[in-house]
Amino acid sequence: MLTGKRIVLGVTGGIAAYKAAELARLLVKAHADVQVVMTRAATGFITPLTFHALTSHVVVVDAADDQAAMAHIALARGRDAILVAPATADFLARLAGGHADDVLTQICLARDCPLWVAPAMNRLMWQHPSTRRNMTILQGDGVHVLGPADGSQACGEIGPGRLLEPEEIVAGLLAYWQPGALAGRRVLVTAGPTLEKIDPVRALTNLSSGRMGYAVAQAAAEAGAQVVLISGPVCLAPPTGMVAVVAVESADEMFAAVQAHLAAIEVFISVAAVADFRPQHIAGEKIKKAHAPSVIELVPTVDILAHVAALPDAPFCVGFAAETSQLVAHGHAKRQAKRLPLLVVNQAQTALGGLDNELLLLDDQGEHRIARTDKLSAARQLMTHVARLLAKKA
């Protein structure tokens, strides 16, 4: 899969450095030529000998090493990619500042090939304003970012900052080198539920896990698209590949985020389970049980998909409908009412919160079924169908 690709794998000094050994193994297994470069701090977590055995190349550790003379030039030339995994907060800060105080940062500055970083750090370090600023600078400089994931951390805390699994990192590289049917397309995806507050501690929401929308975003990125994912509150790691995630909470916030990105997209895929109603009034204090109203007045939210589809210069719109009965009849009626080129219907009872899905695609040519499978596999088949419709439209 990566035959002939010459990759520099940079390893920095974080506890997640142990995962870099499996990453190196997978890259070699995919027939890539892997040269490992380690920071001095990384050698405290895993030895260079491990990577030497896995890659058959002597590991470069520091510019002062004899074998590393002019390494920042030699290793930065003729390479297909530089991948730094894990990339610590300190390394990202030095990279964003243009520092060249070790061989790895020197290689990154002297490169003439794409650079990927896979961040790994404590959740508060990842969320710190300085780290966020550094990531904005790096992405503005064209650095590709893979992750981080959300979950349990070595420090015992839970949150964003985990290094992506090695398989996910390899998948991100593969997506870049295998531009597919949506290569160059700009795609906007919505995912997950929305949360409509009643008071500071209560809210109306639904059973959507966001998995289908996240799978669609990843499948679109794998197919070569530039993807923005607008996500309601979910407990999922960011999709792998070239996906920018925008977190929102309510239907109004999701609508505003969609409007902010419309001018730059060609395809809009509305997978999110957006609330149809929200409380007319949000209490400023927790409503006490003894004084709770017997009725909560609701008002409709904006139908985001219908609004976008009705625009004079509307993007190619793909809708999702979760139905509990009469999937075909309700699907056709919804597609015609919203004038959508493609509507995807799924069974609400099994789709919401589930790990797999069965899809019914409705378009001008009729009905097309995607048999029950895991959501990412289903999303990949869906992207193939979307690409065909876009080609016909063109």
Overview of this structure, please?
This protein is of the alpha/beta class. The chain folds into two domains: 172 residues, Rossmann fold (3-Layer(aba) Sandwich), CATH 3.40.50; 208 residues, CoaB-like (Rossmann fold). It contains 14 helices and 19 strands. The protein has an eight-stranded mixed β-sheet with strand order 12-11-8-13-16-17-18-19, with helices on both faces. The chain has a five-stranded parallel β-sheet with strand order 2-1-3-4-5, with helices on both faces. It has a two-stranded antiparallel sheet with strand order 6-7. A hairpin with a 2-residue loop joins strand 9 and strand 10. Helix 1 packs across helix 8, helix 4 crosses helix 7 and helix 9 packs across helix 14. It is globular and about 70 Å long. The two termini are 31 Å apart. The model has no long low-confidence stretch (mean pLDDT 89).
List keywords for this structure.
alpha/beta; 2 domains; Rossmann fold; 394 residues; five-stranded parallel sheet; eight-stranded mixed sheet; 14 helices
Briefly say what this structure is.
This protein is of the alpha/beta class and 394 residues long. The chain is 34% helix and 25% strand. It folds into 2 domains: 6-177, Flavin prenyltransferase-like (Rossmann fold), CATH 3.40.50; 186-393, Rossmann fold (3-Layer(aba) Sandwich), CATH 3.40.50.
Low-confidence stretches: none
Class by alpha and beta content: alpha/beta
Overall number of strands: 19
CATH fold title of the largest domain: Rossmann fold
Count of helical regions: 14
Q: Which percent range describes the beta-strand content? A: 25-35%
Please outline the major beta sheet. 8 strands, mixed
Mean pLDDT: 89
Q: Ends: how far apart?
A: 31 Å
In quaternary terms, these chains amount to single chain
| Radius of gyration over all CA atoms, rounded | 23 Å
CATH class of the largest domain: Alpha Beta
